[in-house]
TrEMBL record:
Name of the protein described by the UniProt record: F-box/LRR-repeat protein 15-like leucin rich repeat domain-containing protein
SMART domains: LRR_CC
F-box/LRR-repeat protein 15-like leucin rich repeat domain residues: 106-177
Lineage, broadest ranks: Eukaryota, Metazoa, Ecdysozoa, Arthropoda, Hexapoda
GO BP of this protein: SCF-dependent proteasomal ubiquitin-dependent protein catabolic process
Organism listed in the record: Dendroctonus ponderosae
Pfam families for this protein: DUF7885 (PF25372), LRR_6 (PF13516)
Length: 264
């Protein structure tokens, strides 16, 4: 029945049992998404690790998954798995990150969005061991501070996309670290409530930056935001819910960045 299945997405399937999930997991599957399925827990992740040798992309959103689940992955998956997205897995800690970096060294995309127990130490492990990463999402990780951004800037030299939405302890110091990353093309800083105009001065030196989101950053002023016209290669700038963004500012940005989509 499932022999031609290569991609599988199960969302909100609260009636599916672990046995039912096992029956769906055909070895040819390369992309699997499991979201809002209340019976998905550590053992289900173990089944994924055991039964899907060709898996390239795995996206999981499950509140009850713990560090133990990530221990099921082995170097066998490390050769194939390139994309891992763990969304709102609240029980995962730095110990789970240890399992990720040891078993999945070839990841190019990693999202730990909403994994609220992750700390700077976990990010240090990621930066030191997953140096092939091109995309990293740490949004809604409230324990992340500027120290984590220093680790990222020092070691992730191929990173092209970084998402830090709602990382409320990130300050201009952390932005200074990020601004040294020559490979970075997309940077998302939505609702980073401590970023000020001084941080924008650092960003203005990032000549390869193409997409920048500062939505909801409350401390930025029109004067600071106007300096972003120095980013001539930018193609998208998001400034929704920025109290310091005026109509005059938007007109000014659109005039000086004619090829950039300015999202109000």
């Amino acid at each position: 029945m499932f022999q031609a299945l290569y991609e599988l997405e199960l969302a909100g399937c609260n009636e599916i049992t672990e046995q039912g999930l096992w029956q769906c997991l055909h070895p040819r599957i390369v992309s699997l998404t499991l979201t809002d399925c209340i019976n998905v827990a550590d053992e289900a992740v173990g089944a994924v690790a055991q039964l899907l040798p060709a898996l390239y992309e795995f996206q999981l959103q499950a509140y009850h998954v713990t560090d133990q689940a990530l221990g099921y992955f082995s170097p066998k998956q490390g050769s194939s798995l390139g994309v891992l997205r763990l969304h709102s897995c609240w029980e995962i800690t730095n110990h789970g990150v240890v399992n990720i970096v040891h078993s999945l060294p070839n990841l190019t995309v990693l999202s730990l969005s909403g994994c609220s127990k992750l700390t700077d130490d976990g990010v240090e492990l990621i930066a030191e061991n997953l140096q092939k990463l091109r995309s990293l999402d740490l949004s809604w990780c409230p324990r992340i501070t500027d120290a984590a951004l220093e680790y990222i800037a020092c070691d992730l030299n191929q990173l092209e996309e970084l998402t830090l939405d709602r990382c409320v302890h990130v300050t201009d110091i952390g932005i200074g670290y990020i601004s040294t990353m020559l490979s970075l093309q997309s940077l998302y800083l939505r609702w980073c409530s401590q970023i000020r105009d001084f941080g924008l001065q650092h960003l203005c030196g990032m000549r390869n930056l193409q997409i920048l989101s500062l939505a909801g950053c409350p401390l930025l002023t029109s004067n600071g935001l106007s300096s972003l016209i120095q980013l001539r290669h930018m193609c998208e700038l998001e400034l929704t819910n920025c109290p310091g963004a005026s109509r005059e500012l938007f007109d000014y940005l659109k005039e000086h960045l004619p090829r950039c989509l300015v999202i109000e």
